[in-house]
Amino acid sequence: MAYPKLPSRTENFSEWYNQVVLRAELADYAPVRGCMVVRPYGWALWENIQQALDRRFKATGHQNAAFPLLIPLSFFEREKEHVEGFSPELAIVTHGGGKKLEEPLAIRPTSETIIGYMWSKWIRSYRDLPQLLNQWGNVVRWELRTKLFLRTLEFYWQEGHTAHATREEAEEETMRMLRIYEDFAVNEAAIPVIPGRKSESEKFAGAVTTYTIEAMMGDTKALQAGTSHFLGQNFAKAFDITFLDRDNQLKHVWTTSWGLSTRFIGAIIMVHGDDQGLVLPPRLAPIQLVIVPIWRNDEQRSQVMEAAQKVQALLQPTYRVHLDDRDHVTPGFKFNDWELRGVPVRVEIGPRDVAQGAVTLARRDIPGKPGKQTVALEALPQVVGPLLDEIHANMLRKATEFRDAHIYEPETYDEFREVIGRGWAYVWWCGSPECEARIKEETKATNRVIPLDQPGGEGRCIYCGAPAKVKAIFAKAY
Amino acid sequence: MAYPKLPSRTENFSEWYNQVVLRAELADYAPVRGCMVVRPYGWALWENIQQALDRRFKATGHQNAAFPLLIPLSFFEREKEHVEGFSPELAIVTHGGGKKLEEPLAIRPTSETIIGYMWSKWIRSYRDLPQLLNQWGNVVRWELRTKLFLRTLEFYWQEGHTAHATREEAEEETMRMLRIYEDFAVNEAAIPVIPGRKSESEKFAGAVTTYTIEAMMGDTKALQAGTSHFLGQNFAKAFDITFLDRDNQLKHVWTTSWGLSTRFIGAIIMVHGDDQGLVLPPRLAPIQLVIVPIWRNDEQRSQVMEAAQKVQALLQPTYRVHLDDRDHVTPGFKFNDWELRGVPVRVEIGPRDVAQGAVTLARRDIPGKPGKQTVALEALPQVVGPLLDEIHANMLRKATEFRDAHIYEPETYDEFREVIGRGWAYVWWCGSPECEARIKEETKATNRVIPLDQPGGEGRCIYCGAPAKVKAIFAKAY
Description:
The structure is a homodimer. Chain A has helices spanning 13-23, 40-59, 80-86, 112-122, 167-187, 234-238, 263-272, 298-315, 331-340, 351-356, 380-405, 413-419, 433-443, and strands at 27-29, 36-38, 63-64, 70-72, 91-96, 99-107, 131-140, 154-164, 194-197, 209-216, 222-232, 242-244, 250-252, 254-261, 289-293, 321-323, 345-349, 358-363, 372-376, 407-408, 424-429, 446-451, 459-460, 467-468, 470-475. By secondary structure, the first copy, chain A, is of the alpha+beta class. In chain A, the strands form six sheets. Chain A has an eleven-stranded mixed beta sheet with strand order 3-7-8-14-11-10-9-22-25-21-20. A five-stranded mixed beta sheet of chain A has the order 16-15-17-18-19, sandwiched between helices. In chain A, strand 12 and strand 13 form a beta hairpin. The first copy, chain A, is globular, with a radius of gyration of 25 Å. Chains A and B meet through strand 2, helix 2, strand 3, strand 4 and strand 5 of A and strand 2, helix 2, strand 3, strand 4 and strand 5 of B. Strand 5 of chain A pairs antiparallel with strand 5 (91-96) of chain B, so a sheet runs across the interface.
């Protein structure tokens, strides 16, 4: 049985992506347009993402809670920019229990409004602050163009919401969470990201400032992989969230919100994947090592399977291991199958390995012979940990090199137009929304991020030539 | 500052319950009728429930997945009993993205239909079976009378869904999951339950057989704490889920589903709580030990706080510990506060304890002096584990004794009427739905469970006097 090939990434990146998601059984299309089913392999990846983030949130004092799915429509109208940003995307419940509702309800597209409402009840004094909340859940936004994981009507995410007594504290929180996303992306997902600020045109509806971690996909498009918003007192004023401060004055709180969604799975696929399929970062991979036993006859089978089970028992307590004991497919089929699914390390055990008391390890990140090594059984537990770390480091290095090789610094708008389409343009920008709008219209590139890390000095805006104090990254984006 | 008292359980159980939920900050009312906000303390309890169950599901080969929130309305019409059971409770989305939808969508009340639809795409051969799936998520049912945790429009749960090649396998799975719920209730929540079958009138809409674990609350009402359904081929036929078996015949699969929800938190509150508030089972309690430092002056304060932090550091790696270092409330207030919140063990540290190198442990399950002991600091880590186990065992014993003391075996219908209202009636029942319906009409008691464990032999139906082969439990219920 020949293993069906994927479309190549260079020929058709979009179709390669869809096929990888479907064939690796990460997700499938649901019967409702634009909705997805996250299948067990995809959900196990999301659970590992959840754990890696949740650990970080709790270590910084946040607590999880659950706010309702259904929000009175009128809540959205209280914050002007928020209603403009979200109204076109709302899913509306008009009937319940066989009756028409007096007030229609929206399925939450995000929870600032409902949490703001509850805070106005809960917060009385400075002693009730800060509120450091997070919620893992589903939200719905009625998107027109959808793509599995990247943009679906319903998606899964975490949304952090915090309220503080001072502006400074809220700004610190916004930045702390941005850095946590950066740390997560780099150290768990092996994805290099550029932390920075969004322009006024690109920020979240209702935010004072939006920060993002921006990542480059394998086709050089940009993807906003996580966002952290300083909301100022916008929602505090809209929902009248006040507190009695130490100085006995009644004040509005300062709030933040920050989110990372199942879209991040799309980033993992597009940053690391190759023409054979997924390449999953070892710290998040649902299966870190897959054991593939190889035999030709029944005698070999029993020896090999015995050794395979021993290896499984050896690694199981520390690593996520799967033994592929399927009888109806060949080892070659299994190799392809687990490569498609992006398992970081394949453990091959054949009769010769058994005779030598060894196994062969094959790395997913380095295809073919250069990624293979033979390891004695007793050395295995010591070898695997460092090997997974090395794979992580190598994936991060490759992704960083690829990204850096595709960030250009065009000096003229002509050069700018030329580099957009094969990478990012890192350019001086005067700060005007008009220049951004024109660039978008003429090149489809948007202002992705104003990196926190700035060169300093001054230049001339890539579009209008006016004096410019910041450099920004423009790119086509998901 | 006097600590406000709760209503007593004997005077007004319902109001006691509401006050406990609100004041212990487990949950609050949402702005939409019948919806709730689960606050951090309540959600932490739910997370511990989730972990205890998820561990058991994964150990028995189940995988988590996520199916969409929105289901085409027409899906419900495919299974006759299912549509009758759920139609009156659906929340309907009619508009999305500012437009009227061609087909209205229901917010899932449960996911048999959408999972059935996906299985009909995924399952081809016996090699694709069994499918052992579980989903953690939210569902919406438009209930008329609601109560925090016990019955809310939106609630949180897990719903397991499995598909099998044979009837026997599906029946085994149904029973396996029922036993897992029983094990969880007894060994994690210290709640004794009676596993058994639901009558035809009380079963899940679409099931062939529904099994339940039934628990007695502190007011002697019954609560269905978890259910496991054998669905036969009902959904397989409605959604045409077929597979090619080993014998080359195309067959319909056999399915099961099983669920446990945030309602279980209501059971924990009502089974264990007392007039001081919550009494949380130690294995699920968000905080297992709370350290309360006691001092009168600044000199004492620094000594006591140092000791308190040492104790915290000592216990933190193994237990969920909280140090209550609030300065603006008295130790007495804190005692009341943590009793209300049901923390299993209070660790008191005063100047005398510091001088002795000891702490005082106070048990929540045994109020006052009999529940107190002084323990030397160095012995603490050895004492706490067994103490928490003893608290668990004591809570389970107390709940079992209370329940057993309130299960009656009336011999006549007059006796039956008399015992209903102060407990459960364990009686012979002829099996006819008519007798059940009459009993319900006349006494408000429903057939809660036909226990798996039957006495054998024969008796006479408590209502009609006809020969009866099974004994069932009738009770008023939540």
